[in-house]
């Protein structure tokens, strides 16, 4: 529960609300159509304007332009960017308890590891020799922090995150459960009798304000490092191979795979389940649709896509058959061209 | 080891077996062609009928129609649905020891968590404040149950499952190792300097008799809940985004990704590695082939597919080249049409 | 730090180096262009020959043919296979501390489990009844080894690996963090009211020198075993279904999915994100490009591929539209053929 006064202060809003309006208690955040009394909502897309005029929310974040659509009894909070304002106040309604800066007695922390102030370490976490955990860091239950690894200020590793030896996580990062940072890259030399493993001596180095989703894996470099620059957001179940570089502010959606040594530029968007071959160079600002099959680099910002969207199964079967006959169709076309030319 | 008598009782079979037949000791379950004495098998598909007549199994589950194909010395157990009968008796041959309803002394259970009767909690599991674990639940080693989360009667979380705070698992569910239920959804507001994370205040709510495979992740909702209805079966390494809904009895095969707010209907089958864009609505009874790229919703039950199956690499290269020339082929065709029209 | 003498001995090199050359201290391994004094590098591809002639490395692994390209002051170490030589010496530069053969006191090891000599068991690992851990095995922190499971000599399970009951890992294997070996296969019999789970009574059996990447899952067999033969290398986030067989020396790249009962031959290469339908038979030596959609088996070695690589989004949209019109294009072509025939 939080007052509108607190929320507007957080948003640095200079709105002319009456004392009674400011005192309104907001219990939760809700979507426009399901919001009721004591709830705040937001309008971030023109297409929901109609819903706004019927909302039962006590207050709504809107642009100046849309404010007049607010119904009677609903307080319009005018902001430049309602979606960002919503993001900012969402944290008042987070349901998780604040995590105390306490080292759980069951955590096993090597005597040569270094912990900053106000660090929280959950039950059964293991922190090895030479690891450096900065101020305000939260290490969840069952996490493993390898030797000489480091975590920057105010970063949080949720439950059972693996941060392998010598790897680096910057400040204000969030890494979710099951993520494995710094596992060995997939490097083997072929021999006559089998595969000879190559020691992976690089690290995984992660910048500041990076978010890494559940069960994502980011392998350590073979010789040089695998690098995730600052402000990158990475969803769940993504596989990033050794020596990959991901440029700042890039967004990587779930289940993407990026093969070794590929460099993704800054400000890119990588749609879910896309796959990148190794050793590619992707230009800043490249946007890939979901399930893209990326076999060549890009040299300029732009929208890229591949694949044929799903359709009715019978139509699909016919389409595949026709595609397989394209070679023949081309020959038929050529024959026709020649024949009609002769005429 | 179990007698045929016990098995037929389990199946509620009213077959006229002699006392000596009923006393037959069955040691294990096997496929028709590898079964030997003391083993039971089943015929669930017409195409294996020939194998049936040569089986060395001591007993076989068959339909009435196929019973006569059983060879000499092999007892035919006539059932309506041999595959289901096989499923039912398979549990007699499970190799895992029965798990005792014991709380391992190393489990860390908050004093304000509530545990029902006959609960088993494995070593190093962590159960936080306000969590509610119902009767007969099994929590495996290294599991993490967040505050206020709940697990319904007779559900089992295998080893190292994460169930985040406030999330709900129904009754008789099975969740396999490495699954992460209720991690934060991928929600960020863009700002000039980077991505502002949105608190994910919804939950993940899972119905009854739901099965969730190893290393699958089901994110919590942004505002409302992510919902998996009862009787849904979900394979390994599946990614279900925030606010997705999956209708009852739907089957989701491995490595599928479902982006935020998409609603999958009831009784659907989602082939492995398929990907769904966000905010789609998929009709009840939709069946998607593996690797489907689903960019639009469906309005009726049916079979849907996408993609071109793998082929010989040289053929594939030609095909891709031809597809890239389709625009030109169409122009050539048009030119021909005009030219021949003039004739 | 290691002397060239040690390295050349390791490589069994009979090179005529002077005493002072042999005494050269090598501090690290580096790529040709970033190497400096005290560093060793290698040339494994003709295309980097130009870089070789400008390298600042103290020593370089090269073939006899390329030795003359080594610049002044750089010692050429002539070997048959520079990449393999690099692989062999890479381990001298590994940054991880040697793991002592110590059983951490917090590990919970059943009194009926059997441990060989020189075994290392990390903190909070759990090893159940009847498990057999051979000599020289390393079990990382938070690992779970189920009852009757076994791990062969000198294999290493990194942190939080799950090896389920009765499953078998051979000798000299490496399994990385988050892998789940032997989870139940996805087997259910349909009933009128829902899905009836089938007990998965097979095992997962893994040969010698197999490598399994982070967060990969290999399900146990339904009746018979899931089998990974010796010398197979498996990357991260791969899903191998029940009763799959993978032949020796096969390489499986990240995020591949292989559905139940499919048999992959020996010496195959499976590109990343490829998906295999169930019950296929793939010939020895089959090579699949990344993102292959494999719906039929192969009967001979060869290169196979599928899918259309990503392209500019506008071109892609036109291409998809044209593909959807192929049926009509074919009709137009046919009409033309008939019309011009009549001429």
From TrEMBL, chains A, B, C:
Molecular function via GO: N-acyltransferase activity; UDP-3-O-[(3R)-3-hydroxyacyl]-glucosamine N-acyltransferase activity
SUPFAM superfamilies linked to this entry: Trimeric LpxA-like enzymes
Domain Mannose-1-phosphate guanyltransferase C-terminal: 102-181
UniProt entry keywords in alphabetical sequence: Acyltransferase, Lipid A biosynthesis, Lipid biosynthesis, Lipid metabolism, Repeat, Transferase
Top EC category: transferase
Domain UDP-3-O-[3-hydroxymyristoyl] glucosamine N-acyltransferase non-repeat region: 25-91
The EC number(s) this enzyme carries: 2.3.1.191
Associated pathway: Bacterial outer membrane biogenesis; LPS lipid A biosynthesis
Active-site residue list: 242 (proton acceptor)
Catalytic activity: a UDP-3-O-[(3R)-3-hydroxyacyl]-alpha-D-glucosamine + a (3R)-hydroxyacyl-[ACP] = a UDP-2-N,3-O-bis[(3R)-3-hydroxyacyl]-alpha-D-glucosamine + holo-[ACP] + H(+)
InterPro entries on file: GMPPB_C (IPR056729), Hexapep_transf_CS (IPR018357), LpxD (IPR007691), Trimer_LpxA-like_sf (IPR011004), UDP_GlcNAc_AcTrfase_non-rep (IPR020573)
One cellular component (GO) term of this entry: membrane
One protein family per Pfam: GMPPB_C
CDD domains according to UniProt: LbH_LpxD
Entry's Gene Ontology BP terms: lipid A biosynthetic process
Family: Belongs to the transferase hexapeptide repeat family. LpxD subfamily.
PANTHER family, sorted: UDP-3-O-ACYLGLUCOSAMINE N-ACYLTRANSFERASE, UDP-3-O-ACYLGLUCOSAMINE N-ACYLTRANSFERASE 1, MITOCHONDRIAL-RELATED
Subunit details: Homotrimer.
Function recorded in the entry: Catalyzes the N-acylation of UDP-3-O-acylglucosamine using 3-hydroxyacyl-ACP as the acyl donor. Is involved in the biosynthesis of lipid A, a phosphorylated glycolipid that anchors the lipopolysaccharide to the outer membrane of the cell.
Name of the protein in question: UDP-3-O-acylglucosamine N-acyltransferase
């Amino acid at each position: 529960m939080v007052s509108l006064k607190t929320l507007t202060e957080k948003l640095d809003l200079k709105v002319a609300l009456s004392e009674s309006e400011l005192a309104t208690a907001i219990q939760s955040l809700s979507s426009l159509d399901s919001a009721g009394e004591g709830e705040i909502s937001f309008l971030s897309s023109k297409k929901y304007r109609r819903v706004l005029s019927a909302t039962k929310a006590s207050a709504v974040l809107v642009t100046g332009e849309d404010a007049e659509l607010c119904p009677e009894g609903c307080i319009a909070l005018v902001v430049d960017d309602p979606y960002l304002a919503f993001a900012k106040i969402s944290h008042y309604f987070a349901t998780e308890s604040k995590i105390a800066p306490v080292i759980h007695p069951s955590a096993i922390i090597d005597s040569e590891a270094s912990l900053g102030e106000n660090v929280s370490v959950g039950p059964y976490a293991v922190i090895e020799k030479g690891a450096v955990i900065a101020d305000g860091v939260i290490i969840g239950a069952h996490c493993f922090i390898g030797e000489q690894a480091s975590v920057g200020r105010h970063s949080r590793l949720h439950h059972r995150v693996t941060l392998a030896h010598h790897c680096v996580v910057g400040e204000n990062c969030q890494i979710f459960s099951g993520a494995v940072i710094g596992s060995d890259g997939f490097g083997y030399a072929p021999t006559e009798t089998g595969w000879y493993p190559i020691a992976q001596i690089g690290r995984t180095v992660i910048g500041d304000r990076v978010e890494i989703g559940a069960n994502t894996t980011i392998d350590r470099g073979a010789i040089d490092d695998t690098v995730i620059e600052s402000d990158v957001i990475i969803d769940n179940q993504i596989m990033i191979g050794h020596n990959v570089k991901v440029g700042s502010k890039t967004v990587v959606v779930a289940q993407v795979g990026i093969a070794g040594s590929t460099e993704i530029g800054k400000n890119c968007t990588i749609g879910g389940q896309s796959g990148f071959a190794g050793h590619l160079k992707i230009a800043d600002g490249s946007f890939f649709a979901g399930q893209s099959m990326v076999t060549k680099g890009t040299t300029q910002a732009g929208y890229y896509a591949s694949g044929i969207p799903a359709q009715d199964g019978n139509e699909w079967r016919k389409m595949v058959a026709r595609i397989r006959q394209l070679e023949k169709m081309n020959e038929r076309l050529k024959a026709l061209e020649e024949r009609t030319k002769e005429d």
